[in-house]
Every structure is written in C-alpha cells, then in structure tokens.
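Justification of resources, computational component.

The compute hours requested in this renewal are based largely on the per-chain cost of generating structure records like the one below. Each record pairs the submitted sequence with a full structure-token output. That output is archived, and it is also reused by downstream analysis tasks.
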Amino acid sequence: MANSSRYSFPCKPATNPKAIVSGSHYRFSVLTSRLIRFEWSEDGEFEDRVSTFALFRWFDAPHYRVVDSKHCLDIITEHVHLTYDKKQFSSSGLSAKIGEDVWHYDGKSYGDLGGTARTLDGAWGRVDLEPGVLSRKAYAVLDDSKSMLFDNGWIATRRPGRIDGYLFGYNGDHKAAIKAFYRISGRQPVLPRWTLGNWWSRYHEYTASEYLDLMDRFKEEGIPLNVGVIDMDWHKVNIPPKYGSGWTGYSWNRDFFPDPDGFMKELHKRGLKVTLNDHPADGIRAFEDQYQAVAKALHHDTSREAPIEFDCTDRKFLDAYFDVLKLTLEKQGVDFWWIDWQQGNRTKIPGVDPLWVLNHYHYLTSRRSLKVIQRPLTFSRYAGAGSHRYPIGFSGDTQITWAGLEFQPEFTATASNIGYGWWSHDIGGHWGGVRSNQLTVRWVQLGCFSPIMRLHSTKNLWNSKEPWNFEKEAHKIIKDFLVLRHRLIPFLYTMNVRASYEHEPLIQPMYWNHKDDEAYTVPTQYYFGPDLIVAPITSPDSPASLMGGVRAWLPKGRFVDLFHPHLVYDGGRYMHLHRDLTQLPVLAREGTIVPLDTTPKLANGSPRPTEITILLVVGKDAHFELVEEPERDGRCDDDDDDLLQPALSAFVRTPITWDQAQGILTIGPEWNGAGKWRQWNVKLIGHTTTDVQARVPGFRVTRDEAEGCTTVALGNVHRWSPEGFEIALGRDLQLDVVDVKARVFDMLHRCEMWYDQKDPVWDAVARSGDAVQTRVERLLGLGVDAAVKNAVMEIWAADGRSEGGAKGHEVWADVKGGMVEELGEVLQEYVIV
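The structure output for this chain reads:
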C-alpha cells in the first residue's frame, strides 16, 4: 500500500449551493427539511473541509422558504421554522421552532437521550455520557465547532472563533435522525465475519507455549474462538529506568516469545486472527529492535540514544510509524492493532486529538492487510462523533461489579444514538470487585447478545475468564453461551450488512421502534436486530426463587422466549421476567426468523456453516434474507473503486419466507452462491402441536418435539436450486397456550423456601372457585419472598389465552419491600405508586 492511499478516503464535504442561505458573517445550509447546519464567522469565511464528523455535506436541497428583512432572517421548511437576528449567535437571536418545542442557541451539543463516552476506564457503574443526536424534545444539536479537520487527506485545524453546528429537528423520528447522521458522517463499515465470534483476551504474562496450550484447551472443550488478543506483555516491559516506563513497546519479549513469527503462524493455523496491544504514547526508544530503522527513515540522530517522540501531527513520523515500525510486525503475522491510547486528547497542534489521528490512519492503513482480514479494521477507544467509521470500539477497564454489569446494556444501546454500533466490552469486567460465578455468567450472557464478544481480565493471579476455572454449573453455562455466540453468526453477519447499508445498528434502544412513553423507561432492555428483544439480568439471583429478575416492557403483540419457549407473553404492558442462571430473556415476536449455524462441530474462524437451523416463531408472516460474504474469500477486489465498502450486489443472499395462512416456509433461491449442498432444519419455537406435518417432495423429513419446540430436519438441499424449495408445515400455526398450572408447579417446586409456605401460593393459583382478582390479592398478601410472588405472577399473567390466567390483574411485589402496580385492576391498598 502506497503512503498516498493512507490519505485518501471517500468524502464530498462541500455543500449544495441551492441549500445555502448566507450573509456577511453567517451561513445556513438546509440539508434536509429537518437538518440545518448553522455557521457564524467573524472573518466572513466558512468551512468546507472535511471534519471528523462531517464527510458528506452535499444533499439534494429540500423545499424551503426564506423571509429576509433588514434585521431578521426566517428559514422555513416543512418541519423547522428558524429565526435569526443577523448578529453573532445568541440565545435570544437564534432559535428554531420544531413541533411543540423551541430551540435557542447556547453553543452546546444537546441530545438528552445520551450517546456514549470515550471510555469506561475505572467505572464502578454508570458514567456520564456525551450527547447523541436523539432527544425527547423535538430537536437535538451537534456542535462541530472544535472538531479536527482533514485537508487533502491530512490533518488540519479550524480557525478560532468560528461556530459550526447542526440542528436535527426530527421530533421523535429517531431512525430518520440517525439516517441523516450517517448520511452526513458516513455509514458504519461492514465488519469481517470472523470479528463476530469469540475473542480471547487477558492481561497476563503469557509465554508462547502457554498461550498456544490455552488455545488448544479451548478446542478440547469444544469452545470456538476467532481472535487471539495479546496484551502488552508481548513486548519488553522491564526496561532500564533511563528509558522511562514499559507501557510503550514494539520489541518482542524473547524470554516469553522466542520465535514470534512461529508463534503467530501457529495461531493462524488454529484459525485465529492476531491483534497486539499498543500504547504508543512514548514513541520509539533506543532499546527497541527497530530504533535504528525508524531513525534512518526520519533522519534522526541516534548517537545519544535520543528517543523518537510520538508525534501524530508529523506526517513523516506517522509514515515511519506505519510503514517501518508496524509493517515489520505485520509481516511477522500481526493482523490488526489494539490501540490502547490513554494519554488524553492533546497534541502539539491545539485542536488535534491524537486518538482521532490514530483511529483514522490505523483504519485506512489496514487496507493493506485485506488479503488476511478481508475488511479494514482497527480496535480502539471512541474519539467523538464520527468514530463509528473506525470499528471496533474498545470500551476500557470496568470494575467487576453488578453496577458495572447493569450499566453496560444501557451504555451499548445509547451508543447507537450517536451511530456507534460496534462496542467491544471487557466481558466479565476487567479489575477489582469480587469473584462471583453468578456475575460472570450473567456478564457472558450479555456478551453473547452484544456487538462483540471478548472475554478479558486484568493481571491478577485469581482473575481470569477461562470457563473451566468456574464451578461446574457456571462452567457449562459459560461454554454454552460461547458456543451459542458462534451459532448466531449467520444472523449477526446479516445484521452487520444491515447496519451498514440500511443504517440500522445491531443494538437499538426500545424507543427507536416505539413511540410509547414506556419505551423510555427500560434503559437496560434493547432490540437485537429487528425482532428480538433482550432484557439482560443484571442483579443477583433470589435465594428463594433461584432466579434472577428484570423489569421489562413489552410492546403490543405476542412474544415467546427463545430460551424458555414454554412462556408466551401478550405485550402492551410491563412484565417482570425471571430466569434461572442458565437463561436470560430473549423475546421474539410472532413472525420472527433467526438462522443459526448448527454445524455439528464448530471451528475457529467461523467458516460458512454446512448446516443451518431456522428458528421460526409462528403466528404472523415472516421474512428474513440471510446475507453471507462473497463466495471467493469474503473481500472485495483490490481494484474496486471503494475499498472501504463492497458493492451490496457482491454478497450472497438467501431469502427465507414464512406464509402464516398457508403454513409454507420457502427457502431460497440463493443469489450469488457457488452452488453447494447445505443441511437445513426448522425449529418451531414455542409450538408443539402434534398435527404439524412437514412435507418436502424428494426429501426425507424427520421431526422431534422437545423443550417446548418442534424441530424438523430436512436433509441436504442444494443451495443453487433455481426456485428455492418449499416446506409445508401446517396452516395458520399458533404458539402454544401457556399451561399456567404446569409452569407454576415446576417453578414453585424448585424454590428454596419453607415447604408449608408453598401450599398457600399454589392454592392461590390453582383454586378455580374464586375470582382471579381475589386470588391475586391473596397471593400478594402472603408472607413469602417477593421474588417468588413475582415469578408466579409472571407465569400466571403471561398469556391472555390461558385458562384462569391473570392478565389484566398483574401486581408486582417490590423486592425491596411493598407492592408496585404496573397494570391491572387491583385494590389500591396493595399498591405503592
């Protein structure tokens, strides 16, 4: 890769002249009817260069009117009425009415639904979030006045005193606001398939043999991995004091890694990609193996062993950093870099953030490695609006606490409010805290349903995340979820392409898809793709019910839990969900299709599956288009016009459609495929009706009922069947009705509580002579653990079709004492509002 290509990327920063309204010191750009750029400049000149946020300011101008008088300017679009007094921007002189709200200029970014943060380093729980571009008000504001610029591909700075901001007037249409954000800032890139599997990372003084043995142990355990992360002890750390600290280093520690090339070759043979940790702040010092080579490239005097200072504002240094120092290590086998920048946001040039420079140029430089990694990639911290273009994010060193776990799903979801969709957390927490099987299991479950699944921990003899280091039950659960993560990759890769081309991040807050006020009250709950709702359990299990609980809000519709298909829920209300340690709530609405890789023996690197099981939730029509990377090798050609984004037409696509009325599932035809055979299965989640008869002409079909599901095995089907193939499963299939008594009995039987306390609980549910409301009141009045009451209520009220069900009479006991009403007609003396 020539140096010049590192300084080239797609952009179109100039604004359509038809969208501009300007005066001697002001300029407004009407980008859409709901997005207006506002600029003020003392010198009368305005900024048309690329900023870290804004790459594409050229929009087709919408219809708008301008009313221009001597002392006032009005710009009126279909959605925004902006008023300006033609003076330096002020709260009294610049305002805009959007919907029922009025924005007054204050020089700040505003987005009260939150965005994300640069790092979670040291976080015990919640941290302050930078604003995103979504708000409960009708507007949000992104102030771009102080961001770094690019001029012909190289970094540049702004002239002081200029104001440059963007008013998003989307009035609750959150998805439209994010699409406008991506339109101006650039889309999320497509990630290589292998990034979506399990990553192993630990801050530990590994030797090469120890690390390889560990990878082999994972294989023996049947746990697939895709990425081997080597933390900072890969390089020399214990250096002579005259050189400073050992955090920065680029020379292999030969005591631990006597043959680095051979070590990384062995990792590659095991199907793993390799990334090395880099703390670049201290530059290249005289003890480094490549000191002389880098010095020669920079004409640096080495006679006194003067260090080569890290200076990302010096283009010559940056070229030597990438094309001498790092290229040498990449030729040894390093696939991509973990940039662990922790030294602030200042450089020799005011306004230039070193993290931005590192992220931007590492990502562009990684194009030279496409034959290995398939897509450009870096791994680093968030640097501000626009950082979504440089995945993957590293969120930093959280403490191992329940509070830290509780905040992470919210933190991940709100990051989508600033377009940042690919966070990688230290799953299990990084440091501090206490050893807890429960906490680790719940964190791994969250990790399975997070953008990136990377186990990690700090340098501590007792703190490591190998599944077999935990107790037998926890070991099995952690293993099961790590295996599940790889089985989800067909779904995840499809969502990866959707995120890039349809501007739909994998994880979305509930309010992105629902305007109900309740959608804003469940911050730890989120959409995982278009149809799955995840409500992670982030608190310890009850010692009585032996389950963890979470308060959830379900939108209108009917849902089934993928992990507990015996439970079907009517939506449009709050529910308290309870699961034992083996499960977390993952709810699928009627009409959901999720493809899983059910290849019997999963391999490192996540090769394309030879067997796929379609999870089908009946009750509504459903459609899912399975998207896979191109058959060649998963990358675009080197001579493609845009190496940063492959053509959508290059991907392999297989439509999967469920016709609810006719009961026919259609798979294929596959587009762009190479014509191979694949085993297909269908698993009906929450449906066990015995009259289901699958008919596939020419194939032997077997079926099995277990754990609240019916699985139909179809055998090998040629993927290039020109018309696809149809499976007749049965007309108008419905989810099973919840058997309240059977489910309550199973739950209550497991509870660890006084035997004589179980009888009145069972009596309240099972006695059919009294009205449901009377029995609900009786249950709530019992002196038993609140978690047990709520677990009973969940089952009793879940499915409105259930005989004797309590839907409409729900009352939830506060586990901290007292009762809290969510929905239902209940007596007020049982309720704390």
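The radius of gyration is 29 Å. The chain has a mean pLDDT of 93.
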